[in-house]
Specification:
The complex is a heterodimer of chains A (626) and B (300).
Chain A: H1 2-17, H2 20-44, H3 48-74, H4 81-99, H5 103-125, H6 131-150, E1 160-161, H7 178-198, H8 202-211, H9 213-218, H10 223-246, E2 250-251, H11 258-271, H12 278-292, H13 297-314, H14 318-328, E3 374-384, E4 390-400, E5 404-408, H15 415-423, E6 430-435, E7 438-439, H16 445-450, E8 453-455, H17 468-474, H18 483-486, H19 494-514, H20 529-541, E9 547-551, H21 559-574, E10 578-582, H22 586-589, E11 595-600, E12 603-608, H23 610-615, H24 617-622
Parallel strand pairs in A: 5-10, 5-11, 8-9, 9-10
Antiparallel strand pairs in A: 1-2, 3-4, 3-6, 6-7, 11-12
Helix pairs in contact in A: 1-19, 2-7, 3-7, 3-10, 3-11, 3-12, 4-5, 4-6, 4-10, 5-10, 8-17, 11-12, 17-19, 17-20, 19-20
Chain B: H1 2-29, H2 36-52, H3 57-86, H4 92-112, E1 127-130, E2 133-136, H5 137-159, H6 161-171, H7 173-178, H8 183-209, H9 215-230, H10 236-256, H11 261-276, H12 287-299
Antiparallel strand pairs in B: 1-2
Helix pairs in contact in B: 1-5, 1-6, 1-8, 1-9, 1-10, 2-3, 2-4, 2-8, 2-9, 3-4, 3-8, 5-6, 5-8, 6-8, 9-10, 9-11, 10-11
Classes of the chains: A alpha/beta (626), B mainly alpha (300).
Chain lengths: 626, 300
C-alpha cells in the first residue's frame, strides 16, 4: 500500500522535471533507426565489393560489441571471442553444407552451444581473476585454432567454403541481397541490446562488479554468477557472429586465431571502451583499413601496428571520447550548485525513506524466521590471515535488536576483520555467526544481504565514473524483481521506465537525506572524500535494511557533517534499524551507542554501556591512552 | 627413450629462455610483452645478415643481441610506459605490445623477404654419446647456456641490491618509488635483460630453424606456454622448469604419437595444467602449496 503512495509523487516529479528530454531522445532513436534502414537498403543493392566490405565490418562490429559487453562493463578482457566466433562459423558451415539443416534452426543451436561453452569457460577461468582470465580465454582460442587446423572435418589450413544464405520468399526480392539485411539487422539488434543495458538499473550493478566487487556483493548481487552469465551471453553473441560470417565466404583457421581475438580488442579500444557505438566504429575502421590503405601488405601491417599503438597511448578513451569532447566543446562547465549541501532543512531527515516497504524491503526475505532477541550474534569466532598470527581469538559478540552497538579498539585489533566475518566476506576458522537468530555460516555476502543486512567499507567502494545517484541505485538491486531479465529491453518496457524512475527518485531522496543532494550530478570520481562516505551511507540506507554495519563512517567528514551523521543514525535507530558501528571518534560514537564492545589484539576486553567502557581501567589504558 | 629426453631438454631450454624473458618483464611491470618472440627473431635475422656480410660469427651474435636489447628497451618506452603512466591497471598494453610485434615482424619481412636464410652454426660438428643417446654440441650448448643464465638470474635476484629493488618494484611500484627507486630505470634494465634472454634463445635455436621473419610467432607462443605451465608469472625461474617440461613432453609426443603431435600436444598439457593448478606447477601460490598452508593454519 505504502509503496504506491510514495511511488506516485516521485514518478510525476521526475517526469515533470525533465519532460522534454526523453521525447527528444525518442525522436533521436527513431531517426537513427530510420537512417539505419535506409543505409541497409542501400548496401543490399550495392555491388559485391562494397557489400563484402560492409558486411565483414558489421560482423566484426557484432564481435566487438560482444567483447565490450564483458571488457567494458565487467572488466573481463576476454581473448576468447575468436574461439566462440570459430565455433559458430565452423558449426554452421559443417551442419548446413553436409546435413543441409535449416539455417535459422542452426542459429538457435549455435547461440545455445556457444553460450553453454561460454558458461563453462567462464565458470572455470573466473576462479582466477584479472589477467589470468585474459590468459585462460587466450589459451581457449589457441586450442580451438590448433584443433581447426589439425582436424579433418574442418578442412585443415585451407578451410571450408561457407554455405549460401537462403533467398527472400516470393515478393520480397525488391529488398536486395538477403544476407545483407540479415547481417545488418543482427548488428542493429546487438547495438539495441547493449543500448538497453546501459539504460537499465543493471548497468550500475555491472560497473560496481567491475570496480567495486565487494560493494556489489554487499548490496545483494551474486557477483560471480552475474559475471559467468554475462560472459555466456557475450560468447553466444560471438557465436552468432560466426554464424553470420559463414555466409560471407571461406571459413579457415587463420580467420579465428589469437591475433584476431586481439584485433577485436584493438577495435574496442580504438572506438572507445564501454560505449555503445565505439566498438562498431572501431570494427569498421580496423576491418576496412586494408581496403582503404592500399600499399605493400607488409608496410600496411606496419602502419596498422603503429596506429594501434598510437590509439591506445594517445587516445585511451577511443574515438568516442574524442567525439564527446567535440560535442561538449563551447558549452563550458555545467553550472554546479553551491557546496551548501548541509544547509538543507532538517525536515528532510524526517523523510519517509526508511519506512519499511511491504514486500520491497531488503529484509523481507526472511518471513517466518524465529524471533530472536539478538540481531547479530557471534560465538567463538577465530580467524587468521594465512599462517600468520590469530587476528580474532574466540570473539563473542551479541548485538540486540534495535541497538546501536559500537565496536572500538586500537588499530589492528580486528574490528574490520570481525565486520568482514559478520558480513560473510571472510570465512572464520571456527565459531558460529547468527543473523536474526538464523545460523548463516558459509552463506555468501549476497545471501546475508537478502536477510536485510547492509554494510559500508572503511575505504569507500564506489564506481568512480558513475554519479552518486547511479551508485546508490546499486543498493536497490534486489528490491525490484527481474532487473537482469528485463535489462535487454529495459527502455522499451513500461514497467522498466516506471521502475527506473522510482529507483532514481528514491536514490535522490536518500542522497538528499544524508546531505549529499548537491552532488548528484557529478561523477563520484570528482566529489570530495566526505561526499563519497555519504554516498556509501545513502546506498546502504536506500534499501531500508534491518541491520547496518558501518566501518568508520565518520572518517574524512567535517565536524558539521559528523553532527549530521549522528542525527541520521539516531533517526535510523528510531526506525528500528540495528547498527554495528566501528569508529575511532569516541566523542561521536559514545553518545549514540546502547552498548560498546572493546577489542584488543583479537580479544574482547569488555562489552558494556558507554559509561562502563569509559570507566574501565584496562580500556583507559590500552585505548583511551591513560 | 633417453634420446627424446635429451633433445626435449635441449629444445625445452630454448622455450624456457623465452618463457623467462616473458616472465622477467612481467615480474617488474605486470604486463606480458607480446613482442618478446620478435626480439628473438630480430637477433636471429641481424646475426644472419651480419654473418652473411662476412664478419665473424661472434661479432654477428653480439650485434644481434645488442639489437634485441635496444628493441626491448624501445618496446618499453613506446608500447608500455605511456600506458602504465596513464593507468597502472589498464589493459591497453595487450594492444600496444602486439602492435609493436606486428611492426617488427612485418618490417623484417619487408627488409629480408618472407623466406628463410642461412644461419651460422655455433658449435660445429661435435657430438657426444650419453649411454645410448646422442647429444650434439649444439644441444649441449643450449642446455649449458640455459643453466648458466637461469642460475645467474636467480643469484642476481636474491643476492644483489638490484635484484631486491626489482622485487620491490614488482610488489608495489608506487611504494618502491616512495623509497627512492627509479622504477623507470629498473623497467628499462628488465626489458633489456629479457630481450637479451630471448636473443640468446634465438642464437641457440637459429642453426636448426634458420633465419625467418615469422620465427617470433611460433617461439613466442611456446615461450608463453612454458611460462604458464611453470608459473613464471609469479617466479621467473619457474618458466625455465615449465620450458623443460614442455620440451620433453613435446619431443615425447613426437616420438610416441606421430611427428605432428608436437603441434598440438603442448596445448593439451597447458589446458590440463591450468585446470589442475591455474597459477602454474612451480609457482609459489600453486594448488599444492595452498592446500598445505590451509592445513597448517587449521592446526595452529
Amino acid at each position: 500500500m505504502e509503496t504506491e503512495r510514495i511511488e506516485a509523487p516521485r514518478a510525476t516529479s521526475v517526469s515533470a522535471g525533465a519532460g522534454f528530454k526523453p521525447r527528444l531522445r525518442t525522436v533521436g532513436v527513431v531517426l537513427f533507426v530510420a537512417a539505419y534502414f535506409a543505409a541497409t537498403t542501400f548496401v543490399a543493392h550495392s555491388d559485391l565489393g562494397v557489400q563484402s566490405l560492409v558486411l565483414v565490418a558489421a560482423v566484426f562490429g557484432v564481435l566487438a560489441i560482444s567483447l565490450d559487453l564483458v571488457a567494458g562493463m565487467l572488466g573481463l578482457y576476454s581473448l576468447g571471442q575468436g574461439g566462440f566466433f570459430a565455433i559458430g562459423a565452423y558449426f554452421t558451415t559443417i551442419v548446413v553444407n553436409d546435413l543441409s539443416w535449416n539455417v535459422f534452426l542452426v542459429l538457435l543451436i549455435v547461440l545455445l552451444i556457444a553460450g553453454l561453452i561460454g558458461l563453462a569457460v567462464g565458470a572455470m577461468s573466473l576462479r582466477v581473476s584479472g589477467l589470468y582470465f585474459a590468459i585462460t580465454s587466450f589459451i581457449f582460442t589457441l586450442v580451438l585454432t590448433v584443433l581447426a587446423t589439425d582436424l579433418k572435418i574442418t578442412g585443415g589450413l585451407q578451410g571450408l567454403l561457407g554455405p549460401a544464405f537462403p533467398d527472400f520468399p516470393e515478393g520480397f526480392e525488391a529488398l536486395g541481397t538477403p544476407v545483407a539485411w540479415c547481417v545488418l539487422l543482427a548488428l542493429l539488434l546487438c547495438v539495441g541490446f547493449v543500448w538497453s543495458i546501459r539504460r537499465s538499473p543493471l548497468y550500475p550493478v555491472l560497473l560496481a562488479i567491475r570496480d567495486a566487487e565487494r560493494f556489489a556483493e554487499a548490496a545483494g548481487a551474486r557477483t560471480s554468477l552475474i559475471k559467468i552469465g554475462v560472459f555466456g551471453v557475450s560468447a553466444a553473441m560471438a557465436g552468432g557472429a560466426g554464424w553470420l560470417f559463414s555466409f560471407l565466404g571461406v571459413v579457415s583457421p587463420g580467420q579465428f586465431d589469437w591475433a584476431v581475438s586481439l584485433n577485436i580488442l584493438v577495435m574496442v579500444l580504438i572506438g572507445g571502451i564501454n560505449t555503445t557505438l565505439g566498438p562498431v566504429i572501431g570494427a569498421a575502421f580496423v576491418s576496412m583499413f586494408p581496403a582503404l590503405v592500399n600499399i605493400n601488405p607488409w608496410l600496411q601491417e606496419m602502419v596498422y601496428g603503429a596506429l594501434s599503438i598510437l590509439a591506445v597511448t594517445l587516445l585511451p578513451g577511443g574515438v568516442m571520447s574524442l567525439l564527446k569532447r567535440v560535442a561538449t566543446f563551447g558549452e563550458g562547465a555545467a553550472p554546479e550548485p553551491a557546496v551548501a549541501a548541509l544547509d538543507r532543512p532538517e525536515a528532510l531527515v524526517e523523510a519517509s525513506l526508511f519506512r519499511k516497504f511491504a514486500g520491497g524491503s531488503a529484509g523481507a526475505a526472511q518471513a517466518g524466521a524465529p524471533e530472536s532477541e539478538y540481531a547479530v550474534e557471534c560465538r567463538g569466532i577465530r580467524f587468521s590471515y594465512g599462517t600468520g598470527l590469530m587476528v580474532l581469538r574466540n570473539v563473542d559478540l551479541a548485538v540486540r535488536r534495535g541497538d546501536i552497538h559500537g565496536l572500538i579498539g586500537p588499530n589492528g585489533s580486528g574490528k574490520s576483520t570481525l565486520a568482514n566475518v559478520i558480513a560473510g566476506r571472510l570465512p572464520p576458522l571456527a565459531g558460529a555467526t547468527l543473523i536474526k537468530g538464523l545460523p548463516v555460516d558459509g552463506a555468501s555476502p549476497s545471501k546475508r544481504a537478502e536477510l536485510g543486512m547492509r554494510r559500508t567499507f572503511q575505504a569507500a567502494e564506489l564506481v568512480r565514473e558513475l554519479t552518486p545517484i547511479q551508485n546508490v541505485m546499486v543498493g536497490l538491486f534486489n528490491l525490484k524483481p527481474g532487473i537482469i531479465r528485463r535489462a535487454a529491453l529495459w527502455p522499451l518496457l513500461p514497467s522498466g521506465r516506471r521502475d527506473l524512475a522510482w529507483m532514481e527518485g528514491r536514490s535522490r531522496e536518500a542522497l538528499e537525506m544524508v546531505g549529499a543532494g548537491a552532488w548528484v550530478g557529478r561523477a563520484v570520481g570528482d566529489v570530495p572524500h566526505g561526499v563519497e562516505q555519504l554516498t556509501q551511507l545513502a546506498s546502504v540506507c536506500v534499501a531500508g535494511p534491518d541491520i547496518i554495519i558501518l566501518d568508520e563512517p565518520a572518517t574524512g567528514l567535517s565536524a558539521r557533517e559528523v553532527d549530521h551523521l549522528a542525527e541520521i543514525l539516531t533517526h535510523l535507530k528510531a526506525q528500528g534499524v540495528t547498527m554495528i558501528i566501528i569508529e575511532h571518534q569516541t566523542r561521536f560514537l559514545f553518545p549514540l551507542c546502547d552498548r560498546v564492545t572493546v577489542l584488543n589484539a583479537g580479544e574482547v576486553i569488555l562489552t558494556g554501556t558507554a559509561e562502563e567502557v569509559r570507566a574501565h581501567p584496562v580500556v583507559r589504558q590500552v585505548y583511551l591512552g591513560e | 627413450m633417453l634420446q627424446f629426453v635429451v633433445s626435449g631438454v635441449a629444445i625445452g631450454a630454448v622455450y624456457g629462455l623465452i618463457g623467462m624473458a616473458l616472465a622477467i618483464t612481467f615480474y617488474v611491470t605486470r604486463i606480458i610483452n607480446f613482442a618478446q618472440g620478435q626480439m628473438m627473431m630480430a637477433t636471429v635475422m641481424v646475426t644472419a645478415e651480419v654473418r652473411a656480410a662476412g664478419y665473424p660469427t661472434w661479432a654477428a651474435a653480439l650485434l644481434g643481441l645488442g639489437c634485441a636489447c635496444v628493441l626491448g628497451v624501445l618496446s618499453y618506452l613506446i608500447a608500455v610506459r605511456p600506458i602504465l603512466a596513464l593507468n597502472r591497471f589498464s589493459f591497453g598494453w595487450l594492444v600496444s605490445t602486439l602492435g609493436f610485434a606486428v611492426i617488427l615482424e612485418n618490417a623484417a619481412a619487408y627488409i629480408w623477404g618472407p623466406t628463410s636464410q642461412a644461419f651460422p652454426p655455433m658449435f660445429q660438428g661435435t657430438s657426444f654419446h650419453l649411454v645410448d643417446a646422442v647429444v650434439t654440441g649444439q644441444q649441449l650448448l643450449a642446455i649449458v647456456t640455459a643453466a648458466v643464465l637461469t642460475v645467474g638470474f636467480e643469484l642476481v635476484r636474491r643476492g644483489t641490491l638490484f635484484g631486491k629493488i626489482g622485487m620491490a618494484t614488482a610488489a608495489d611500484p608506487e611504494m618502491a618509488t616512495a623509497v627512492g627507486v627509479n622504477t623507470t630505470v629498473v623497467a628499462i634494465i628488465a626489458f633489456a635483460a629479457s630481450a637479451f634472454y630471448a636473443g640468446v634463445a634465438g642464437l641457440l635455436i637459429g642453426p636448426t630453424t634458420f633465419a625467418n621473419p615469422y620465427l617470433g610467432d611460433t617461439f613466442g607462443t611456446f615461450g608463453f606456454i612454458a611460462m604458464m605451465i611453470g608459473g613464471g608469472t609469479e617466479k621467473p625461474i619457474a618458466a625455465m622448469f615449465g620450458g623443460l617440461l614442455l620440451g620433453v613432453c613435446a619431443e615425447g609426443a613426437n616420438a610416441m604419437i606421430n611427428s605432428q603431435a608436437s603441434d598440438w600436444f603442448p596445448f593439451i598439457i597447458l589446458v590440463v595444467v591450468l585446470i589442475v593448478s591455474p597459477r602454474g606447477l612451480f609457482s609459489a601460490g600453486n594448488l599444492f602449496r595452498l592446500r598445505a598452508r590451509s592445513v597448517a593454519s587449521a592446526q595452529a
